[in-house]
Write a structure and sequence with these properties.
456 residues, alpha/beta, seven-stranded mixed β-sheet, three-stranded antiparallel β-sheet, globular
């Protein structure tokens, strides 16, 4: 039975498809880098689910209630109260977005150069902030995550045996903290189970290592737990969310995803008052005064409302159901995708889609370019192009070459996604003729945003 969205649409934003000739010209002018396109030349934008969702009428109304006081804003109090209720954490600091929270927190936890930050799979800006703070990111996601053909209900799980082996063989002061990303974006929006979080906590306690959650998609993770983890079908989403957070000492959150706002982030700590004071002290120069942290009062007001809507089960069922349908259409068309379908995006396995294009010719980038040419749809490469070079300047090879098709929340209809799926089906039929790319210009860090490419 079809389960319709629990909302109707009262405002629309026109989009248009420019001609194929124009698309060819635009993508060439952009140096075959989809980040360099003008958004108005994109028909359906699946670049990211970050900050691209639609706010509800209640959120728009909340903007007008925003209290813009520099200090002690009422909107901050409302946000703080919401986050406390949702997480059970005492200390709440707003930030301008997720990476703002990382920038405040990580240097306080990484106290000497080379300390390890162990996670399932760190997101790219998170990895960059670990490195900027002098730490070394370590990815210990379970091996199933790297095989897109294997079904596993919690492919985002951290490999607890390898975690324990690593902690056992490493001096305590060589490890800064553990950071579990929920859902695990880089593995395909794959969830982490409560059993896994509990086990990580137990191992961490044994070795005295703090645990944090990178909680951008915390509500989607909770929904998967309810659907897939034995014993949780009858539990409410808020109670699962609270249990998830109970296994960590704090969180960083990009509120631009599940928080249902266009900008915003959070840093929250369970009970460590000393660390909170030190976070506050860093927040002021980098983000802003502790009761606004880089956000307008109206932003905090909209976020408080967004966080409440995020844990509504009907919302999550519609949201994750739509991404699931999108994935199913692609699978039915024979397009290889990461299985099972994740929470916020479908990840096309470009290694299997374009097996004749080697990793260093960026098969997922080639596919992203082709999808834009074919249909004006924008996805993003998550593979070797994104990964970049090692310290000696050698191109690294990513374990997976993904074209991520992220679905903004409450923004596109099924028809938009069906159109994108049909375009990939047509490309599939002529894939042997698609070639790779080489880089003709690249900056030294986070190159994928501004590099220029050319067909090989
Ligand atoms: N952590 C995760 C898991 C993320 O997915 C992101 C952003 C961040 C941290 C950083 O948050 O952008 O608010 O500073 N992910 C976006 C994406 C950009 O497209 O997946 P931010």
């Amino acid at each position: 039975m079809v389960r319709p969205e629990p909302y109707r649409i009262k405002m629309v934003e026109p989009i248009r498809l420019i001609s194929r000739e124009e698309r060819e010209r635009r993508i060439a002018e952009a140096g075959y880098n989809l980040f360099a396109l003008r958004a108005e030349d994109v028909f359906i934008d699946l670049l990211t689910d970050s900050g691209t969702g639609a706010m509800s009428d209640a959120q728009w109304a909340a903007l007008l209630r925003g209290d813009e006081s520099y200090a002690g804003s009422r909107s901050f109090s409302r946000l703080q109260e919401t986050v406390r209720e949702l997480t059970g954490y005492r200390y709440v600091l707003p930030t301008h977005q997720g990476r703002g929270a990382e920038h405040v927190l990580f240097p306080l936890l990484i106290t000497r150069p080379g300390q390890l930050v162990i996670g399932n799979l760190h997101f790219d800006t998170t990895r960059a902030h670990i490195q900027l703070a002098g730490g070394r990111p370590v990815d210990l996601v379970i091996p199933e995550a790297y095989d897109t053909t294997v079904d596993h209900p919690f492919k985002g799980n951290l490999d607890v045996d390898r975690l324990e082996a690593l902690l056992k063989s490493t001096p305590r002061d060589a490890v800064a903290f553990i950071l579990v990303t929920v859902t695990c974006n880089s593995a395909g929006g794959q969830p982490v189970s409560l059993a896994n979080l509990r086990a990580v906590r137990a191992v961490a306690d044994k070795y005295g290592v703090p645990v944090f959650l990178d909680a951008a998609r915390f509500a989607e993770n909770a929904y998967f737990i309810k659907m897939r983890e034995p014993g949780y079908a009858g539990r409410s989403i808020p109670s699962i969310v609270k249990e998830m957070f109970s296994y960590a000492d704090g969180l960083t959150m990009s509120a631009k995803k599940d928080g249902l706002v266009n900008i915003g982030g959070l840093l929250a700590l369970r009970d460590d008052e000393d660390l909170f004071r030190r976070c506050q002290a860093r927040l002021v120069p980098f983000e802003g005064f502790p009761t606004y942290g880089g956000l307008a009062g109206r932003d905090m007001e909209a976020l408080a409302e967004g966080l409440r809507e995020a844990v509504d089960e009907d919302h999550l069922a519609a949201r994750i159901g739509q991404v699931e349908r999108f994935g199913r259409w692609l699978e039915e068309a024979g397009v290889p995708v990461q299985r099972p379908i994740g929470g916020h995006a479908v990840y096309v396995d470009a290694k299997r889609f374009l097996p004749h294009v080697p990793p260093h010719q960026f098969p997922a980038q080639a596919l992203a370019v082709e999808l834009y040419r074919e249909a004006g749809v924008r996805g993003v490469e998550v593979g070797s192009f994104l990964l970049g070079r090692d310290e000696e300047g050698r191109q690294q090879t990513a374990p997976m070459e993904f074209l991520r098709l992220a679905v903004p929340r409450r923004t596109y209809t099924d028809n938009h996604l069906r159109y994108a799926a049909e375009a990939l089906e047509r490309i599939m039929a002529r894939r042997d003729a698609i070639g790779g790319f080489r880089i003709v210009y690249e900056p030294p860090v986070l190159r994928h945003f501004t590099a220029h490419l050319a067909p090989v």
